[in-house]
Amino acid sequence: MRRGRTARRRRRRAVRTRGALVLDAEWTDLRDWCRAQGMPATKLALARFPDTCRGMMATAEIRAGEDLVRVPERLLVTASRVRRATLARARTPSTSAWRLSEHQALAYWVYAEAAASQPSAWRRYTRTIPADFDSVPLSALSGDCPSDSLSTATPAAQWVATHLPRAAARRAAEQQTRLFDDWTRTRAVLATVGAAPPTDWRRYVWAWLAVNTRCIHLGRPAEGGQDTIALAPVLDMLNHSHHAKIATRFDSARGQFVIQTLRGYRKGEEVFISYGPHDNAFLLAEYGFVSAGNPHQALELDREVDAWLGAAACGGDALAAALRRHGLWGDFTLSLDDPDPSYRLQAALRLGLAARETGLGAGGAVATWERWRRGVRACDSNEAAMAAAMQQWIQRTCRTVAGASGQMVRDAQAAAQQPPAPGRPHRFLAHCLGVIWLEAHETARRWASCQPGDAGSASACAGAQL
Ligand SMILES: C[S@@+](CC[C@H](N)C(=O)[O-])C[C@H]1O[C@@H](n2cnc3c(N)ncnc32)[C@H](O)[C@@H]1O
After folding, report:
1. By C-alpha distance, which of 305, 350, 312 is closest to 331?
2. Most buried in the list 240, 242, 287, 429, measured by CB within 10 Å?
3. Which domain of life, per UniProt (predicted)?
């Protein structure tokens, strides 16, 4: 029987969301153990999905407003629990020497549980943690030995380092500093309290990333020594979507952490939570994936603005200082959805153009710019000239960015097609980079093709060829 377009569309959507249930012993043991520890039954089952790999499937219709999972406190792994358990086993327990952050304590716990020769009951949980986090850039860039800086020792690491967007590269560098500090501090503290410190750097990187990609925020204030983050079995199998709408709370009466969905799911659909309103560079650096169609995407032009202002004959340092004074330095962006450049980019361009093109010099430019910031309107002809000059800067810059990002797209897409082999970048990581660079490329192409007089609008040029 021939079906109509609507039926075909529905079928396509069903294919996209349908997953295959995972019924292995690791998952069923974990689920049954959690129930025995007091976790109420859920309408969720572990499954594999074509787009998101392992995640949670609705086993029955879930209505908006229903609780997805309730995790009893005894199943939450918190820093306090780790401290108590470690000091109870230590040879020379010293509470005052226990100076580990929550992330440090949890990473140590994952490391020690996974390495223990005599597994505890928690092994049912730790063995469901993925064996690697290879799609997180830090995993490729943290090297085989402890170091406080990113490594490019292998061809794969070199490739990742040269293909990471700037925001993700900055984040990876910050993570590497924290990772190394956490390793150093954890080893020192555990040696002092008489417990076995971590010795295997790669295993520690894995444990650290397990915490970074899986821990939940308990939504409590940090003061008073209360735990603010935790590992939460079962709940941490839920993937992220920017379409998800959730609420979390701690049900003190029942001693359970609760996650509630504010939108419904049909039986068989993947159920998502939201990890926050993050752009793809953040999602990739922190979690090792990207969200296609992410509404929080923007093209960052920080390096271009920095180089341009720095090269300004009219006192680039004074201009940068004025922007910094007002908290407007950096995060200079364009987006596909917003018809105007971000306020920060407009501010930087107005200041630089006032200094360069009006002959006012840095002092005069800053004074004129301050008036604009206070909302004092320039005369129409000055304003039109400024808008046209901004437009030209954006077009020129975006043409260059579109060329460079186009090459990145081709590289990343080619790397994602290559069969896995030593020295090659991880294929899913290459795929994610391809998505990010394609978004940057499309944004740059659209803004590059706007004509002066389009009112600085990418949406006005939405029909432009990509
Ligand atoms: C809290 S865990 C979620 C469960 C995880 N998929 C698993 O199999 O254990 C977070 C990790 O899931 C993956 N993930 C989450 N949301 C995703 C998505 N929308 N697409 C692809 N991977 C996703 C990423 O690897 C991320 O680091």
Report:
1. 305
2. 429
3. Eukaryota
364: nearest Cα among 314, 305, 312, 307 = 314
81 C-alpha to ligand 1 centroid (Å): 25
Report the number of distinct structural domains present in the chain: 3
Centroid of ligand 1 to alpha carbon of 288 (angstroms) = 8
Whether residues 43 and 156 fall in one domain: no
C-beta 290 within 6 A of ligand 1: no
The verdict on 319 and 451 lying in the same domain is: yes
Looking at the structure, do residues 68 and 86 belong to the same domain, yes or no?
Answer: no
* Contact in structure between 92 and 189 (CB atoms under 8 Å): no
Which tens digits make up the pLDDT trace of 369-414? 999 999 887 777 788 999 999 999 999 999 999 999 999 999 999 9
For the question of an ipTM over 0.95, the answer is: yes
Taking the centre of ligand 1 as the mean of its atom positions, its distance from the CA of residue 239, in whole angstroms, is 5
57 - beta bridge partners?
45, 270
Residue 130 Cβ inside 6 Å of ligand 1? The answer reads yes
Instruction: State which of 239, 242, 273 you would mutate to test the pocket of ligand 1, scoring each by most atoms of that ligand within 8 A of its C-beta.
Output: 239
Other CB atoms within 10 A of residue 291 CB: 24
Q: Residues 407-424: pLDDT tens digits? A: 999 999 999 999 999 999
Domain encompassing residue 253: 1-72+240-276
Site to probe by mutation for ligand 1, drawn from 287, 296, 432 as the one with most ligand atoms within 8 Å of Cβ, is 287
